[in-house]
Predict the 3D structure of the following.
Amino acid sequence: EIIMGGLVITPMDLNGVEVTNLKMRDMELPKPELSIVPSKGYRLNSELTMVIDGDWSFGFLGGDLTVNTKLNLDAVAAVDADMKNGIFRTAAESCDVDFVSLEIDMKNEFLNTIAKGMVEDVKERIAGIVCKEVNTALDTSFNDLFQAIPHEVKLHLLTRDIVFGFGPDSNPVFSSDHVDVPCRVQAQSKIPFPFAPPRGISDSVDPEFIGCVLLSEHLVNSVSFLALGKGAIKENIPNKKFPIGSDLTNTAYFKKSLPQLYKAYPNKDVVYKISNLRYPKLEFDSNLQKVDVPLRVLVQINGATVINLKLSLKTRGHLNIAGNVITGSCDEIKTKTVVVSSKIGDIDADLANDIMDDLFSKTIIPDVNAFFKKGFRLPCVDKVIDTKEAIAETKDDFLRVCGDFELTDYTLAVVRREVEKIVDKFTLDY
C-alpha cells in the first residue's frame, strides 16, 4: 500500500467559483491487481482514495473546502524490447478513471447543495491529474526502474571471473495466461565462440508455480568455453587424495589388468597427468544431462611418458535445484580411448577403455559429483530474485527451472529507491 501526501493541485474555475490552494492531504493506493492484456502488455487496476483540502471564493464570499473521493483506476501499458539500451520499456496505452464516490464539503449545508453542481467538473479535473501522473510514470519512471536494475554481473566460475551482460532478445509475448520474456545473456571472449548464436526457446508454464526460467545449453556451453578451455582442467596424481604409496600410484595396481606395464616397470611409482583438449560440452536431453570432454592422459614413470592416451570422456547424470543453487549427480561414465604412443608395446583398445573407466571412476568422477553435490548458483538471476519452491527439468536443448520467486533485498532496495523518486516527482509537480 502506498500513501502519499503533500500534492499541490493547480487552481480550478468551477462555473465562476474559484477553487485555490488545493493540496492533497492523503492518497492511498492499495496493492494493485496486475493482469495480462493479450498481444499488448499488462493492465493495472486498483482502488484509489484521496482527500483534498483547499479554499473557495465567489465574489465577496469565501471559505475552505474538503474533497473526499474514491475511484477505480484502470491503466494499460505496452511492454517492448529496447534493443539499443538493452532493457524492456513500458509505454502508457490507456488510462480510465471510474469514480465510486466524490463528496465536496464546503463547511455549510446550503453551500454543499450548491457544490453538488460542481461534482462532474471536479471529477474530470481529478481524473485528468491521476491519468497524467500514471501515464508519466509508465512512460518514464518505470523505465528508470528497469534501467536501475544491473545489466551486468561478475561471477567467479571455476577458473576465472566472467562478466555477464543480460537484456532483452526480442519483444515479450503476452498470451492469455502467461508472459514469455525472451532474454539473452552475453559474455566477452577474445576467441570466437565455436558455435552459432542460439535460437529462441519456449515451453509451457507449470501452473503450480509463479513462473519458469529456461536456460539454453548454449548458455552453459558458453560458460564452459570461457572458463574451461583447452588445458584449463588439470589433474595430476599423486595428489592429496591419492598420495604416493596408494594403490593407483604403483605399477603393481596393473599387474593383472596391464601386465606388460608391470613387467617392464615392476613396483615403480606411477604419475598420471590429465588435461582437457577442449571445453566440456554439455547437452540437455529429456530428463538427462550429458557431458562430453576430450582428455589427454599421460602415464609417466621416472619422469618419462610411458603411455600417451587420447580419450573422449562422456558422462550422463541428473540435475536438481534448491533455492538458486543447481545441484546434480553423474550417474554413468563412458570412455573411448585412443593409444597415441606406448613404450610397452601394443595395448588393446577395449583393454585401454576398461582401464580408463576404472581410473576415472576412482578419480575424476568423484570430484565431478562433489562439485555437482555442492552445486552452483544460477548466473544473472541470483542477484535479482530468490527461488523458493522449485523444480529443475532437462528438456531437449534446455534446462527448465520452474518455481516461486521472490525479489532479493537488493532488488527491493532498487525498487524502493525508484518508487521514492516517483513519489517525490508526484508531490512536486502540482
